[in-house]
Amino acid sequence: MNATEIRFLQAVKASLQNQAVTWTDELPPQDWIALFRLADVHRVLPMVYEAVYRSPAARSADPQMLQSMKRRTMQAVMLQTRKTSEFLRLSEHLAQAGITPCVVKGIVCRSLYPKPDCRMSSDEDVLIPPEQFRLCHEALLAYGMTPCEPEQGLDAAYEVSYAKPGSPLYIELHKSLFPPDSQAYGEFNRFFAGAADRMTGLTVQGTAITTMGYTDHLLYLLCHAFKHFLHSGFGVRQVCDIALFANTYGAQIDWQWLLQCCQEIHAEQFAAALFRIGQKYFTFDPEQACYPEPWRRIRVDEAAMLEDMLASGIYGGASMSRKHSSNMTLDAVSAGKRGKKAKGTVLKSLFPAPDKLERRYPYLKKHPYLVPAAWADRILKYRKEIGRDNQAMESVRIGNRRIELLRQYGIIEK
């Protein structure tokens, strides 16, 4: 790790403890810029700013730069406050309509932070029983929400996104937590088949919401991070969520069942690495979380995972090269499930299999013969996205490096 990454991790940890960093050294302007840029890539700028602006080191920083970061932090926090209030009002509206949505991630995780609205969320994820989906859709329309993709088939889609004109509220309504047709992680849904019978309640700002049981929710947080790792990476925020959740609810978590589920999808080393990162760099406390011996015995070197996490940014979006490399890693996982070896090539980065194109090009489900047209459109968009940080060969280099990570952590065979 370089000096900026070390300071970044220190600032995030201080934020989780509702403290300020104790840096005393005078940092040159480029170091402050690099720190805030990294915080921005990971979408934790308010957390980092809150942790550093009162430090002795900040007294020698450029006042205009700090003022700019303060303004951006205040804007982000106010926006998140609006989102939270709007979502809680929507929750009450759905409850009055007789709908029992299960809220996951987002507001549930934010409630664990010392300053919840400093932990930004782009959307709120809601899981709904399939038989209530149409009723929930109508209730959302009545509230003023509109589908983000009006042409999307509601019955076939496993997830539908909604936005509200004039409001920052954005909802992802799920029939299942993961796309069932995904070769790489569609099978994760089986772990949550009975989750509706294990749900629990949570009160946020006086509003009651329903969420998954503690073991289910921690498993989902791990599976969600794992899914993004299989794509192009996960960011620091997901590890923070997992660390805080485990610390808060560890005594009520069935750790043995959690380990069994992770082993079934070859994610036990991945999960153990996240907990190790949480313990070394954030606030995960194995004793407080009742982290049991079988988990502690898993031998794993978290250094490579940490490096990839820092480079990935939020959900692996640090660069378009990294995003495009996900075609290679997903293909490697799918190949492994079929008993084949992973092969990283430019073609697989640029031309994913037809079934992987259907989400971006829904018309392929009805008209599969239009796959060449979809590929052509993808190439045109890819060329527009290409810049200094995004070359085809860079995507391949990232993809091949990350395929080696999959092997290192036992996700695919060596």
Q: What do these coordinates show?
A:
This protein is an alpha+beta fold and 414 residues long. It has 4 domains: 3-61, no CATH class; 79-212, Beta Polymerase, domain 2, CATH 3.30.460; 215-301, no CATH class; 319-408, no CATH class. Helices cover 52% and strands 7% of the residues. It has 17 helices and 7 strands. The protein has helices at residues 3-16, 29-41, 45-52, 63-96, 106-110, 133-143, 214-231, 236-249, 255-264, 268-281, 293-296, 303-312, 320-337, 346-350, 354-357, 371-385, 392-408; strands at 102-104, 124-127, 146-147, 159-163, 170-174, 200-204, 207-211. It has a 5-stranded mixed β-sheet. A two-stranded antiparallel ribbon has the order 6-7. α2 (29-41) packs antiparallel against α3 (45-52) and α8 packs across α10 (268-281). The protein is globular, with a radius of gyration of 22 Å. It starts with a helix and ends in a 6-residue tail after the last helix. The model has no long low-confidence stretch (mean pLDDT 88).
